[in-house]
């Protein structure tokens, strides 16, 4: 089965790539292993230079890379540009800080000298999704490569062009060896690739169901894995929240990337004292968003990435309506070409409804009232996921207490939608996965933390 690049706006096939056979897979894994043996010997200064050069390559041809994203998965072009720039910032961050992050940590013991050293593991397999086809890969690859590893990327079947372009950008880093290799492989082949002796560890971003399988196979092979899985992030709006800021943040947090994000706000929990006003403002401003050609600078909502994703989202909405949800906006598949789904706002929500109990990957916003901050936290935590959550309040002491001590998530934000930042660790708990990407914690996920003791 080929990897098919299809424009979700025009529904036209852009290009097809044949799946790799085992001879190709073996050759690329062997090349990656050889590249690692050389790359691990490079100085920190050389690694930093290469990462900076990759960032420069992305910036110098930003429009081409951004257009590739938009044409292949439908992200509005202004957001695609922001994705490429974020990749460049991430690469620069690890280039500037890898020396500090990898310096041995001295520990005073009875020895003449004792310390903790950090060594790369080897070739890391990355199984990545389609919704941020550049950033998801760079988010993992930048710290992994900074640490001295080499990356083998298995991209999503619907974004092969992005994977090819990303590989080209990495090859412009000026390293003597390639640091990122693509594998266009069928799902059935992934278990044997994880087990392959050339693979030292694996990272996976995607569904909880698939993540369980990756973890099982990696565990059987005694290989380190990091999982960044699904999310059903809550946004709590307390009665003293600045509604101008809260609504603006919630709009972007829900509709960025047409709602196709693991850390998008997916459940809105609003204190009853401001519930009616919040709903009115949110509906009004959702209605004002422009849906259309993602290459248009004025477009806010592009098409969903695939037809099957739209079908599943519509199923979730329709089943929730049948269970009693009230539609304030949207809720119907529009006529015409392109995999569009309009901004959809629902109230009269019960926890059993699919739009609340399941992860919704699209522009759907269910809103539920609560009567206290205690109830709000209880409702926010009543999910099998634990990726991110936000709380909106003018009482920053209270907001910090809720974020730090009450919300059972890996990323808790006050008065802001959740986002990833190279300087901060990113990941979840419970069925949102384990391990961390980004920051010093992400860099050290794929190193051997070695004790050295000298008497």
Please, could you describe this protein's structure?
This protein is of the alpha/beta class. It has 2 domains: 3-229 and 429-454, Aldehyde Dehydrogenase, Chain A, domain 1; 233-414, Aldehyde Dehydrogenase, Chain A, domain 2, CATH 3.40.309. The protein is 41% helix and 20% strand. It is built from 15 helices and 18 strands. The protein has helices at residues 22-39, 44-60, 62-73, 77-102, 135-146, 160-171, 190-195, 208-220, 243-255, 275-287, 307-322, 354-357, 373-381, 396-406, 439-443, and strands at residues 3-6, 13-17, 105-106, 113-120, 123-127, 150-154, 180-182, 199-205, 224-228, 233-237, 265-271, 326-329, 344-347, 364-370, 388-392, 411-414, 433-434, 447-454. The strands form 4 sheets. A 7-stranded mixed sheet has the order 12-13-14-11-10-15-16, with helices on both faces. Helix 9 (243-255) packs across helix 10. The longest helix is centred in the N-terminal third of the chain and has 26 residues, at 77-102. The radius of gyration is 22 Å and the shape is globular. The model has no long low-confidence stretch (mean pLDDT 98).
Cα distance spanning the termini: 59 Å
| Radius of gyration, whole Å | 22 Å
Roughly what is the average pLDDT, rounded to an integer? 98
Q: Which residues form runs of ≥5 with pLDDT under 50?
A: none
Domain tally: 2
CATH architecture assignment of the largest domain: 3-Layer(aba) Sandwich
Largest sheet: 7 strands, mixed
In the CATH hierarchy, the third-tier topology of the largest domain is known as Aldehyde Dehydrogenase, Chain A, domain 1
What is the beta-strand fraction? Answer: 15-25%
CATH class membership of the largest domain: Alpha Beta
Q: How large is the count of helical segments?
A: 15
Structural class call reads: alpha/beta
């Amino acid at each position: 089965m080929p990897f098919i690049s299809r424009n979700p706006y025009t529904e036209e096939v852009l290009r097809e790539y044949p799946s790799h056979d085992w001879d190709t897979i073996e050759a690329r894994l062997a090349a990656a292993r050889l590249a690692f043996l050389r790359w691990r010997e490079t100085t920190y200064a050389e690694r930093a230079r290469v990462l900076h050069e990759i960032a420069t390559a992305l910036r110098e041809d930003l429009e081409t890379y951004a257009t590739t994203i938009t044409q292949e998965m439908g992200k509005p072009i202004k957001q695609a540009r922001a994705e490429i720039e974020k990749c460049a910032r991430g690469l620069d961050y690890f280039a500037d800080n890898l020396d500090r992050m990898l310096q041995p940590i001295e520990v005073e013991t009875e020895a003449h000298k004792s310390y903790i050293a950090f060594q790369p593991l080897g070739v890391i397999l990355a199984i990545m999704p389609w919704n941020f086809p550049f950033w998801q890969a760079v988010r993992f690859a930048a710290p992994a490569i900074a640490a001295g590893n080499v990356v083998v990327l298995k991209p999503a079947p619907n974004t092969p062009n992005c994977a090819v372009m990303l590989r080209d950008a990495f090859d412009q880093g000026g390293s003597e060896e390639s640091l990122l290799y693509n594998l266009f492989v069928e799902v059935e082949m992934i278990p044997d690739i994880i087990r392959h002796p050339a693979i030292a560890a694996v990272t996976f971003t995607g569904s909880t169901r698939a993540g369980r399988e990756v973890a099982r196979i990696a565990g059987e092979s005694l290989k380190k894995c990091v999982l960044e899985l699904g999310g059903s992030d809550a946004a709590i709006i307390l009665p003293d929240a600045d509604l101008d800021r809260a609504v603006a943040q919630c709009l972007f947090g829900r509709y960025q990337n047409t709602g196709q994000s693991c850390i998008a706000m997916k459940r809105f929990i609003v204190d009853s004292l401001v519930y009616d006003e919040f709903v009115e403002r949110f509906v009004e401003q959702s209605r004002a968003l422009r849906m259309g050609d993602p290459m248009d600078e004025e477009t806010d909502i592009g098409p969903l990435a695939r037809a099957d994703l739209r079908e599943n989202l519509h199923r979730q909405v329709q089943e929730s309506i049948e269970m009693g949800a009230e539609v304030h906006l949207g809720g119907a598949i529009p006529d015409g070409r392109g995999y569009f789904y309009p901004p959809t706002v629902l109230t009269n929500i019960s926890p059993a409804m699919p739009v609340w109990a399941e992860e919704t990957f699209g522009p759907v916003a269910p809103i539920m009232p609560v009567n206290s901050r205690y109830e709000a936290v209880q409702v926010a935590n009543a999910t099998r996921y634990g990726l991110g959550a936000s709380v909106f309040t003018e009482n920053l002491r209270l907001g910090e207490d809720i974020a730090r001590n009450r919300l059972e998530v890996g990323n808790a934000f006050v008065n802001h939608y959740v986002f990833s930042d190279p300087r901060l660790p990113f990941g979840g708990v419970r069925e949102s996965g384990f391990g961390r990407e980004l920051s010093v914690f992400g860099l050290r996920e794929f190193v051997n933390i070695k004790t050295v003791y000298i008497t």
